[in-house]
Amino acid sequence: MKKIFVLDTNVLLHDPNAIFAFEENEVVIPAIVLEEIDSKKRNADELGRNARGVSRLLDGLRATGHLHDGVKLENGGTVKVELNHRSFAKVQEMFGDISNDNRILAVALNYHLEEQERGSFRTVVLVSKDVLVRIKADVLGLTAEDYLSDRAAGPNEQYVGHSTLKVHPSVIDEFYSYRTLPIKPLGLSYTLYPHEFVILKDEMGSGKSALLKVSEDSLQLMPLFLSNEPVWGISARNAQQRMALELLLNDDIPLVTITGKAGTGKTLLALAAGLLKVEDEHKYKKLLIARPVVPMGKDIGYLPGEKEEKLRPWMQPIYDNLEYLFDTKKSGDIDKILMGLGSIQVEALTYIRGRSIPGQFIIVDEAQNLTRHEVKTIVSRVGEGSKIILLGDPEQIDHPYLDSASNGLTYLVERFKQQGISGHITLEKGERSKLAQVAADLL
């Protein structure tokens, strides 16, 4: 049985193509949603871009019919701008205020009551990314859902980049003898992806084990090409950190993604690898470090000074790690070092969009706050001979319309996990301090 999906404004501002995600069902856009979209279309940010995208999309659909009557979509569904189900009386009994959210709820409720009067079995579903709107809908007896079509994977399905495999001890012996191990004879019930790491453990219970990685063609298990030597004074403290350094220092992997909780060493490892490649090996011309300007908590507003002074509070976590790596003693020393080197550039992400960046080692920190479009824009800027690393914790998102499954970093990991030009690892063990690890686990 077909359904009626009533869309909240935030769904369209999050994904302008959302109207095509509901198959052969009827999609309803309340008139107040158009007003809210119109108020955002002049914004210079992601919301403004999406508002303009929705406007162009709906304008294109007008060529095939009247939107207030309903227009057929290529997927068999229909989209309709609703003008006739605006009675606010029922919702006002519950919530009183005539807010935009309550107007959208009123449209969904009036549709629901109309379907009941007709004796129709069509379910009316309100789709919103606003939790409180979904709660209000539940109070009114409406079915309400989050917009899930853009989710790359659920929390328990996300690719972590490593797995543990229990095998007969003879298999481990075979690997150490031949330094390679074909994957097919192992008879695995799941897929191993290029550059995924595998820990072999003895199923008989002995301490025999081996750390391997999947070849680019996913046919062989190979040894790690790096020894566990310090990188700019930083040594891997656990197996996952060693895996991360393996990906970071491999020049044949131009895209690396690293996720993990706070304190697992994502930024420090990436910076150490970048310094080695740029300053010692001269593999890349420049080390470019960027992060999105998204505040945690209330924004501090406008800042005085030139661009560098304005950006300093946002970029301070990067400078903290650089001070540790360069072992500076006084405040301000790191600025003198960076000015003297000239090959290390710290930027807000705003300033690398639209550029072509060849021959550079690029680190994008806090990438969990990026949308899918922003990630596409950034990764597609990478020029010939560059390597880009995206770091972040999908559980610590400050963007209002993103979550652990729909953010750009998670989306990138899932879309690239089968590609031989990329590698991913999830860091699990905190190494900042015992307090930081307990806080990350408990809070």
The parts where pLDDT drops under 50 for at least 5 residues are: 295-303
The assigned CATH architecture of the largest domain is 3-Layer(aba) Sandwich
**Estimated structural class:** alpha/beta
Question: Which strands sit side by side, in order, in the main sheet?
Answer: 3-4-2-1-5-6
How many β-strand stretches? 17
* CATH class term of the largest domain: Alpha Beta
| Average pLDDT score | 86
CATH H level, superfamily name of the largest domain: P-loop containing nucleotide triphosphate hydrolases
Number of helices: 14
Write a structural description:
- With 443 residues, this protein is α/β, with parallel strands linked by helices.
- It folds into two domains: 142 residues, Rossmann fold; 209 residues, P-loop containing nucleotide triphosphate hydrolases (Rossmann fold, 3-Layer(aba) Sandwich).
- It has 14 helices and 17 strands.
- The chain is globular, with a radius of gyration of 26 Å.
- 37% of the residues are buried.
- About 2% of the residues have low confidence.
Give the topology, please.
Layout: E1 4-7, H1 9-14, E2 26-30, H2 31-40, H3 46-61, E3 71-72, E4 78-82, H4 89-95, H5 100-118, E5 124-127, H6 131-139, E6 143-145, E7 162-167, H7 169-178, E8 181-182, E9 197-202, E10 209-214, E11 220-223, H8 239-248, E12 255-260, H9 266-280, E13 286-291, H10 307-326, H11 333-341, E14 344-348, E15 360-364, H12 372-379, E16 387-392, H13 408-416, E17 422-427, H14 434-442
Parallel strand pairs: 1-2, 1-5, 2-4, 5-6, 7-9, 12-16, 12-17, 13-14, 13-15, 15-16
Antiparallel strand pairs: 3-4, 8-11, 9-10, 10-11
Helix pairs in contact: 4-5, 8-9, 9-10, 12-13
